[in-house]
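User: Hey, my collaborator sent me this sequence without any context and asked if I could get a structure. I don't really work with proteins. Can you help?
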Amino acid sequence: MTSSGPLEAYRALRRGNAIEHDSIQELAVEKLQALHRRLQSYDPLTSAHWTDIFRLGVRKPRVEPPQGIYMYGDVGRGKSMLMDLFFDHAPVEKKRRVHFHAFMLEVHASIHAWRQNPQREGDDPIVPLAKNIAREAWLLCFDEFQVTDVADAMLLGRLFELLFSHGVVVITTSNRIPDDLYKDGLNRDLFLPFIKLIKAELDILHLSGGTDYRLERLSKSPVYFSPLGADASSEMDRLFNLLTEGNALEQMTLTTQGRDLDVSRAARGVARFTFEELCARPLGAADYLTITEHFHSLLVENVPKLGPHNRNEAKRFVTLVDILYESGNNLIITAEVEAEHLYEQGDGNFEFARTVSRLMEMRSEDYLKGLVG
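Assistant: No problem. I've predicted the 3D structure and written it out in structure-token form, which is a compact way to encode the shape of the chain:
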């Protein structure tokens, strides 16, 4: 398999004015190009022996695997775009790109299935799991690497030790520097060896400074649309495509305090919900905080006129707006009426006044520029 690599693809985008000049991005893509060249002459299957099988239960590559890359930086810096360029041109047949949260859901499902199998061999589900993952793809590209769940934190060290021992090469993007992963998490001391492993096995690359081009364009666009109808829906589609850069949607399940929250439409740190999905179900502040940890922008559709007749939904909407505002997240809305008319009459109208004020501020250019800067 031959390919000119991500650098030429990046330069083609620059020549076509599809992306703007960004010196930090250019340095990053040169790093990715160097890894691309190393992958052209690397094969863990033909460069492996079994001298380490008794210690780890896996083969240890005779040829040292190429060092992977951990790209971190603020939202909108182009991390996912650069990783996609690398993945699309990687000279590897067995490769996989996956959102890290989705990957961990698969890991837990595989471990559960192993435990339910009465004919399983051995007493460690991570060994066969790592072997199967490496067999299917030895180049793994993870988008939005983050750890917020104690169950994930406890098994990651063992899993990645085995994956690296199989010769798997890892590329990942994250909003956090490795030292801040699982920050303040339960039993974090047990997680620190994994951070050490990541720093040893991956080249840590910071996409610092720069401009969030998606949010910069968004700051010049309306983000609150009413009344409901074809025009509002069309604008929602346009902004969703802008923020996700046309990427394929992913389905995710977030876990908060033992509850699952399904996210059916998400990509590139952006999630799209209906008002019913977020406010007509028994969700609370913890659920909304989890959403803000995973997404920098939320699109909420079909917000109805509120009042005593849907008091519980209105209270949840107030909580949602408060948390998004205090977290500095972006909010795009389609609503039946303008914000100042959402809750005009009845008990609860006075308390809703602050929500109206915040909705007005969150649609202002200054607020959106604050997200950019």
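In plain terms: The chain has a mean pLDDT of 84. You can pass these tokens on to your collaborator as they are.
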